[in-house]
């Protein structure tokens, strides 16, 4: 497993790893067909990182330094990140902030996600899948700090039944939290983030950001420090990364 202290180290080395991955050609991405995309893929990719930007402004600054999509769509992605972060981390409270029906899904704000909506709405939202997640994971670990059962699923059985249809299903499989001493003599909250599929160029950065914020909130609830974020991706791919040597 690759072990990184900072996200800057992770980004550089992951980009290099992907550039050396086997070439793939995809004619179907999510529900869109006929795209004929050429890219690179690493299967079963795993790494850990200790430091992740903690605010939207810091994440945007990092994104603009390393990813074209953040440079091209800074304002739109900033708005989406703020909205989606609140929806995911406070799914119940978010609904309570509106006297009338809440606004449409946050995906209409994202320059890439808004083009993949099925009709007027997505086929699922992470907000709906995160209801109760923070409370349940914290409750499980508080009752038994040594447990290996503090897992919250995102990908559900209904998604498996739909995976042959031209519809979107979650890229994230779930989160597994454990309290462990990783060798420094301190009990910290370790989060394992499991993903079915991850697009490095466009969504890796926000995926890591949301996972880290979820981890930090649970650690705060438990009164312990945040440890490593361990990220496992079944299909880690890039359709933009250079195929030449990267040093």
Features:
29% strand, seven-stranded mixed sheet, alpha/beta, 7 strands, 247 residues, 9 helices, globular, Thymidylate Synthase, Chain A
How would you describe what is shown here?
This protein has 247 residues and is of the alpha/beta class. The protein has a domain at 2-58 and 131-238: Thymidylate Synthase, Chain A. The chain contains nine helices and seven strands; from the N terminus they run E-H-E-E-H-H-H-H-H-H-E-H-E-E-H-E. Strands 1, 2, 3, 4, 5, 6 and 7 form a seven-stranded mixed sheet that branches. Helix 9 (204-222) links the parallel strand 6 (187-199) and strand 7 (225-238). Helix 2 crosses helix 4 and helix 7 (133-143) crosses helix 9 (204-222). The protein is globular and about 50 Å long. Mean pLDDT is 88; it is low at 243-247.
Write the layout of secondary structure elements.
Layout: E1 2-6, H1 7-19, E2 23-29, E3 32-51, H2 56-66, H3 68-72, H4 74-89, H5 91-96, H6 126-129, H7 133-143, E4 151-153, H8 157-162, E5 172-181, E6 187-199, H9 204-222, E7 225-238
Parallel strand pairs: 1-3, 6-7
Antiparallel strand pairs: 2-3, 3-7, 4-5, 5-6
Helix pairs in contact: 2-4, 4-9, 7-9
CATH superfamily of the domain at 2-58 and 131-238: Thymidylate synthase/dCMP hydroxymethylase domain
Separation of the first and last Cα atoms? 20 Å
Gross morphology is globular
Mean pLDDT: 88
Can you name the CATH architecture of the domain at 2-58 and 131-238?
A: 2-Layer Sandwich
Biggest sheet features: 7 strands, mixed
Quaternary structure: single chain
Helical proportion, percent range: 25-40%
**Strand segment tally:** 7
Using only C-alpha atoms, the radius of gyration works out to 18 Å
Number of helices: 9
**Proportion of residues in β-strands:** 25-35%
Instruction: Provide the CATH topology of the domain at 2-58 and 131-238.
Output: Thymidylate Synthase, Chain A
**The level-1 CATH class of the domain at 2-58 and 131-238:** Alpha Beta
Structural class: alpha/beta
Order of helices and strands: EHEEHHHHHHEHEEHE
Spans of at least 5 consecutive residues whose pLDDT stays below 50 are 243-247
């Amino acid at each position: 497993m690759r072990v990184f202290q900072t996200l800057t180290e992770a980004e550089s080395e992951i980009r290099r790893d992907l550039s050396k991955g086997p070439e793939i050609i995809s004619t179907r991405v999510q529900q869109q067909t006929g795209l004929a995309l050429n890219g690179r893929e690493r299967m079963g990719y795993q790494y850990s990182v200790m430091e992740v930007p903690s605010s939207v402004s810091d994440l945007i600054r990092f994104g603009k330094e390393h990813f074209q999509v953040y440079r091209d769509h800074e304002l739109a992605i900033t708005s989406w990140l703020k909205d989606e972060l609140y929806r995911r981390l406070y799914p119940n409270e978010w609904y309570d902030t509106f006297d009338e029906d809440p606004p449409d899904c946050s995906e209409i704000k994202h320059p890439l996600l808004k083009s993949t909506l099925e009709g007027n709405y997505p086929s699922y939202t992470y907000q709906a899948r995160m209801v109760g997640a923070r409370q349940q994971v914290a409750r499980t670990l508080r009752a038994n700090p040594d447990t290996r059962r503090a897992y919250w699923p995102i990908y559900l059985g209904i998604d498996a039944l739909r995976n042959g249809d031209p519809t979107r299903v979650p890229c994230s499989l779930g989160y597994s939290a454990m309290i462990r001493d990783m060798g420094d003599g301190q009990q910290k909250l370790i989060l394992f983030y499991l993903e079915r599929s991850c697009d490095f160029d466009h969504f890796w950065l926000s995926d890591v950001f949301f996972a880290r914020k979820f981890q930090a909130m649970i650690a705060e609830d438990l009164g312990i420090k945040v440890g490593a974020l361990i990220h496992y991706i079944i299909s880690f791919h890039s359709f933009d990364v250079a195929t030449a040597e990267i040093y």
